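Pasting two entries for a bug report.
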Amino acid sequence: MIHELDGHTIDSETMGRYGERFPPQILLREGIEKIDYEIDLSCIRMLDS
């Protein structure tokens, strides 16, 4: 999963034979949404659309 997120190819023999690609929804939910940037955004006011 890390290689797919960082854009590297999965070219090892093991991953090429037994591995599978993750759908974008899984990469988003299991990878990107779990990142904690430790940034306090509470001072930003949300504007109504």
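Entry 2 (this is the one that rendered wrong in the viewer):
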Amino acid sequence: MSNQLDNPGRRDVMRKAGAMAFAATGVVAAVTPAVAATSSAAGALGARLQGVQHFGLTVQNMDRAFEFYTQVLGGTEIMRDGDFQGDVIHNTLLLTEELDARQRHVNPRAVGIPDLRSGAQRLDVRFVQFDNVVIELLQYRDSNQPQGKGDSFAPPTEKTSPAFPRSMHICFYIRDDVDFNQFVHDLEAESAKRGMTQVKANRVVHAASEQERLNAPLNTNTNRITSGKSDGWTLIYAKGPEGEQLEFVQVRGQAKRVFDGAKDARRQLVAAQ
């Protein structure tokens, strides 16, 4: 059966799910009536937004990614849907990519553009809730592949360096009372137990081999900044099970005061509009 977003019932379900997801994020304070009125009127674009609703990640293996973000990192499933196909959803997601391919006289399929229009490929999605953000997992698969465990439509990109323009990452906030170095160790260990050997975190020292990376002292698992404007910011970059770029941070001291002050200023600005 064709799953298209022009179905009124589907639109209502997705709208309600999105509203629940955003309400749970706590990213921005509740929208006041004044802001609600501004959001529907002409004016500054920023005044019409309610903040970030979710981050999306296209995955190679839906079940593996879902297991990592729920069972390893502790997110909670909001909803799942799938088998999206048809002209409306194809145009909604892929029209400009398809036009660009045709202008370059390239077969859209050759550059990773699935054919949702005819239903040859399908899109499945799952939403995962964390304390202050929602992550959407997406998988494009051939129509003869089962949902979840089926193979992806296209291979993953080989260019995984975060230095590439257009690269994105997901950043997770670690509680202040958590031993960050131990967290990184346990993240890799728990993932390895599940066969997710792709989950690897960087070290703050040079390693000439994978074994040297693994053998690095525990206190090299994180970079703790103790001076300058970022004083109090602790971080490490890691790869997730899909090769996606992840970041884990703790924010204390000077950095925390800066971010908390910016959040308070933002709330006052929104309330005044």
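Dev reply: Rendering is fixed now. As a check, the viewer should reflect this: The longest strand covers residues 76-84.
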